[in-house]
Amino acid sequence: MSTPYPFSALVGQEELRLALLLNAVSPAVGGVLVRGEKGTAKSTAVRALTSLLPAVAVVPGCRFSCDPAAPDPGCPDGPHDPAVQGSVRPARMVELPVGASEDRLVGALDIERALAEGVKAFEPGLLAAAHRGILYVDEVNLLHDHLVDLLLDAAAMGASYVEREGVSVRHAARFLLVGTMNPEEGELRPQLLDRFGLTVEVAASRETDERVEVVRRRLAYDADPAGFAARWAAAEQELRERIVAAQRLLPEVRLGDGALRQIAATCAAFEVDGMRADIVMARTATALAAWAGRTVVLAEDVRQAALLALPHRRRRNPFDAPGLDEDRLDEALERERGEGGDDPDPDPDGGPEGPEGPEDPGGGGRPPQPPAE
Known about the structure:
With 373 residues, this protein is an alpha/beta fold. It folds into two domains: 7-66 and 85-202, P-loop containing nucleotide triphosphate hydrolases (Rossmann fold); 251-340, Orthogonal Bundle (Helicase, Ruva Protein, domain 3). The chain is built from 14 helices and eleven strands. A five-stranded parallel sheet has the order 4-7-10-1-11. Strands 2-3 form a two-stranded antiparallel ribbon. A two-stranded antiparallel sheet has the order 5-6. Helix 1 (14-25) runs parallel beside helix 2 (42-50), helix 1 (14-25) packs across helix 12 (276-291) and helix 12 (276-291) packs across helix 13. It is globular and about 65 Å long. The model is unreliable at 346-361 and 363-368 (pLDDT under 50).
């Protein structure tokens, strides 16, 4: 098995790293759509994230990766014996190719055997393989709209349904969805864009020093993948532990009325359609607080959540620049704060780590440095 490029060794791309980490902390955020040119570490970042995810306990022999502590009662390979000892495997990333068929995605039913023998002979697809892991779709804008609909439906429901000639099969399909696209090759329909939780625009840096560091690290990795990964092992372990700690803290995070009002006011100010944006912003702000080691959502969490959750949902003209107008965003937040009176957080310090939380090696600021050789 090849050694993956360390997530903590990525240079720049702070928003991309943060969006991926937030989904690792809370898959309910709804996945990430990464828009940008080729050669900007999109697929490298997704593969690197996989190695940070906690190992998965599975029922031995189950093709649908059921958790032995809480097996899916409707699992096609079930029912599972609760006395059977579970096994542990690494989290995995499943890649959906652009030319995949519907059966390859959702699975295939043997209709003849089902009708003749009454047996639901089902061959799992990629959605089953991605359960409790990452499903990566490169060039999602080139995927057939029907497949994108099936993919996003499964991501939203946490389950996949296959029906052929009156015979149906259901299985759990909960995964972290990451799609990438180059807007120059075509856009996704607005209805599909809205189904992705967060969106990130990526581009190659124009800073000479940063480009030099990208090349230097890539050449070092290509020359000795294992040695390069070993130099970043401590930073990788720190990220793993922080993801687990944030996942445990997440249920304790409080989203106050002040923060909710700021979320609603922001979505209204940018004239987004429907209520999905409000819900995604709330989940993202909560995940941000947990990632920072806090149990209360602050105004800064709401602002960062808006920058990740609203750019692909706002009403825009064809020649508008990507992203949000940050001045307009700040005005909306400040106006609601002034009308509401109270800050979203009754504790201005946000806990012992301060308003910024602990130092962030994964989602912003200067990339962590390996130990000196």
